[in-house]
Design a protein that fits this description.
Length: 555
């Protein structure tokens, strides 16, 4: 009996000291709104447990959500999210676990706070810089819109990125840290066999805006992306859609969603030998290019195809022949210089660079014949510019084939000598050493050979044909050079700067082609500003003749 009495007293004590508070019921909001719910799930006087849940009623995904609010209590512990900053009573919170909120979706996180007792609802809420009120329907952050892409250089390095691979590849950080300006993103495919809805790898519908904020950031740094349709897995849209118009509309929706000027069709496996989808695709691409031309837009179309050292297979040639038959203007043909097999490429160790070069030379001959037979004039320089080379770095799927750093240097030298149009590799996700070092098998996230981080990217980076601006800063009256003048180049959000040397000379290197605003500043001189066009592979000269600032003498 005494034991029962003690138990009852303990239960009563817990009941009075720990208050369980039910969750606030989420209201149904209108389309284009969000509901940010704040609830206290437990309160024990000295502290409390709370939860914040964000429900997206908009028809678009909210990407990379960041929540800000003022809160008079202290958040001591948090889960399923992170505190980015805390200043006074102002909190900024985000999540790496659930960073995106799909239409109709909810993300939530919990926390321990203090003191308990009466807990006031946070105020001054902002979701991705858009104000909201807790526990009320509020406007959702607007969908991200694509920014205009910059001009592309005449030749470029654009490694493939497997964008749906886990862990996610950080495009923006890589562009900032490694200097890679251009990427090829794979792959856009049908959501399912027989479903004409375009998606990233069947995971993300195109209309949700997946990767758009990253692409905008890369463009603001002077780079861009080429989106690749197809790939080795899933169903290419030309096979899933049942008409030319439907596949054309599917492709166009992707182009519009990301404001693309460059697209790639990676046709391999069974698709490279499927005549129905090949014909449907060719007609759709021709219609896309016609519409783009009528609208005054660029649309550069690349084909990525399997290859042997002897060149494209007949199936690959049939893909190109179909495109030409329907009037597609092919920007380039990118060969997958990998997985040849022992019969086509015997003793590959140490020869993968040479085999890639043989394949490129063979492709040149095939393109020369293809265009001559089609009655389309192309000189040798134009044909070389249509060639792209994409090896698989490190260990290939054919395990005896290993593409080493020296192979990459060999391919780079060839590509520069012949002035081909594109260098890439599969894939940027793999451009690092595996934690275990060398591996006898292929990993999707590392190269399976010994290497430095992004070593293959650094080898291929010089291939991108960028431009430069140089010139002198000169005293307008004396004609003498002005040293230590600041030269600032601006293109969009990209900033490049340098100073003049003792001879007044400056040079801004590795500039993305297009127009740059160049500013020359020197203490005691009037600032000069010029609009300068940068061209691919060229150095544009702009001299600045500065006049001294006249200072009035005091009476």
């Amino acid at each position: 009996m005494k034991i029962l009495f003690v138990v009852l007293i303990s239960v009563m004590f817990i009941a009075f000291s720990l208050t369980i508070i039910p969750s606030t019921e989420t209201l149904a909001c209108d389309s284009g709104e969000v509901y940010v719910a704040f609830t206290i799930t437990q309160n024990w006087g000295s502290g409390f447990e709370g939860q914040i849940a964000i429900t997206n009623y908009a028809s678009w995904t909210i990407w990379d959500w960041v929540l800000e609010f003022d809160f008079s209590h202290t958040i001591e512990n948090i889960w399923d999210a992170s505190i980015l900053s805390h200043s006074g009573n102002h909190y900024v919170i985000a999540s790496d676990i659930n960073p995106h909120i799909a239409p109709g979706g909810t993300v939530s996180f919990g926390f321990i706070g203090s003191p308990g007792g009466i807990v006031e609802t946070p105020t001054n809420g902002q979701l991705n810089d858009v104000p909201f009120v807790f526990n009320e329907c509020s406007p959702a952050p607007p969908p991200v819109e694509p920014v205009d892409p910059p001009p592309w250089p005449e030749r470029f390095f654009a490694p493939y990125v497997d964008v749906t691979l886990w862990p996610p590849f950080n495009l923006v950080q890589t562009a900032q840290d490694e200097g890679i300006k251009f990427f090829t993103l794979g792959f856009v495919v049908a959501m399912a066999p027989g479903d004409c809805t375009p998606s990233w790898g069947t995971y993300y519908p195109i209309d949700e805006g997946f990767l758009l904020s990253d692409i905008n950031a890369i463009r603001n740094m002077g780079g861009d992306v080429m989106v690749s349709f197809g790939g080795a897995a899933n169903t290419e849209l030309a096979a899933a859609c049942d008409s030319v118009d439907s596949v054309k509309n599917a492709y166009q929706s992707v182009i519009d969603a990301y404001n693309l000027t460059h697209i790639d069709f990676d046709i391999e496996g069974a698709m490279v030998a499927d005549p129905v989808s090949i014909e449907r695709r060719s007609q759709a691409i021709a219609a896309l290019q016609s519409d783009a031309a009528n609208a005054g837009r660029e649309l550069h179309v690349w084909y990525t195809l399997p290859v042997l050292p002897t060149g494209l297979t007949q199936d690959g040639l049939n893909v190109l022949q179909s495109a030409l038959d329907y009037g597609v203007e092919i920007a380039g043909v990118n060969i997958m210089a990998m997985d040849y097999g022992d019969d086509a490429a015997p003793d590959p160790d140490g020869q993968m660079g040479e085999y890639a070069i043989q394949a490129a030379n063979s492709l040149f001959d095939q393109l020369q014949t293809l265009y001559a037979d089609a009655g389309i004039p192309k000189n040798e320089e134009e044909l070389w510019r249509m060639i792209g080379i994409t090896p698989m770095i490190g260990r290939n799927d054919v395990l005896t084939e290993l593409f080493y750093q020296e192979d990459a240097r060999q391919v780079l030298n060839f590509a520069q000598e012949q002035n081909i149009g594109m260098l890439s590799f599969w894939s940027a996700n793999r451009d690092k050493q595996c934690p275990e070092g060398e591996l006898p098998y292929v990993s999707p996230t590392c190269s399976s050979i010994l290497q430095e981080p992004f070593e293959f990217s650094h080898i291929f980076l010089p291939f991108t044909a960028l431009g430069a601006i140089d010139g002198h800063a000169i005293d307008r009256v004396t004609g003498k050079p002005i040293d230590e003048a600041l030269i600032l180049g601006i293109q969009g959000e990209t900033r490049e700067w340098t100073t003049t040397n003792l001879e007044g000379y400056y040079i801004l290197n590795d500039l993305t082609p297009g127009y740059w605003l160049v500013i020359c500043l020197k203490a005691g001189y009037k600032t000069r500003i010029a609009r300068v066009e940068v061209k691919t592979g060229e150095t544009t000269t702009k001299d600045f003749r500065l006049r001294k600032v006249l200072r009035r003498s005091k009476d």
